[in-house]
Request: fold
Amino acid sequence: MIERIPDLVNSDANLVRRGRFLSTTFMLEIGDQGYLVKIIEGRIAGVTPGPFVTPNYSFALRAPRDEWEMFWKKVPAPGHNDIFALFKRGKLTIEGDLHPFMANLLYIKDVLAAPRREAVQ
Amino acid sequence: MSPRFEPITGRYLNFDLLGRPHRLYIEEAGQGIPLLCLHTAGSDGRQYRGLLNDKRITDNYRVIVFDMPWHGKSSPPEGYQNEEYKLTSRGYIQMILEIADALELDKPVVMGCSIGGRIALYLAHQHAKRFRAIIGLESAAHVAPYYDVEWLHRPDVHGGEVSAGVVSGLVAPTAPDNHRWETLWHYLQSGPGIFKGDLHFYKVDGDIRGKIDEIDGRASNLYLLTGEYDYSCTTEGTLDIAKRTGAQATIMKGLGHFPMSEDPPKFIGYLLPVLEKIRGAA
Reply:
């Protein structure tokens, strides 16, 4: 799913426009597997899977694999439809420098939810 | 061609709240039993546009919606530049009672969502006799903070955008896009620090957990409706209040935290039977 994020985001001119003031690299952990997601002016410049020796990132989002799978369903069930729902249930943690995350929250939520567009159910 | 006006009248009411003069914006439509509607934190009365325009409701109810002070078209009181806005249970209750008095409403039904759903519990606890019925939408006795509200008001983050970002997931994923983004627009437009100031009531001052067992849900005609996608005021929280008070609770499928705004037709489908019951027609 996560491998599709660059194409899905970069082909969406409106989403890229909304993120145009954001350039950062953040860590996304799906269970034990980490990915560094690099954003340059709203475009996804790369998604690099770990393991990493000295990963450098602004903030990290970590949740178990089954939570991300539920999150990426076409119509997610209650409690699984938003990263804040995952926070609230204690399934997702965020740490690091939250400024780029909060200042671009609507954009980042749509980036993370992009794989839903290709979900079958 | 005649202009296509909606059947809504908007006016400004001058009244005093906690000793200070206010100029409050109020919309209304319909006739019959007064139905006083309370919007969510950081938003305004436009959330009730679907109800104000629905003849099935306005044939029997006079729907009245006000923008709380500091919200929508109700400006803050004079001198606001010298204070930090913080909503309290005391101020919120007083506001509702004084507006009902100023409008000379005779035993209105009051319906509030989120912070309005919380204050509905306070009204059921302290002022039940003044209302014909009380409808709490997305009512929870308490919501523990699950993110740092300081992000909602600081100069290096756009307050409207972050507020909309925080609440966007509370809209059900099945909500129609036009209503979803209308709902978010109200947050995108909210005044600086206003959502945060309302959350002072929602997360700090307005903890009513200790009084739930003192509420008589039957005597106060308390109805609770909560959307299944609401992770802020959860369905479990609502059902717990219903169980302890005797209130009638409905869990609404395919709706989230802003039922009247995110999908008005779907919400009205759940609301109509409640309104029929209240006016004794069902």
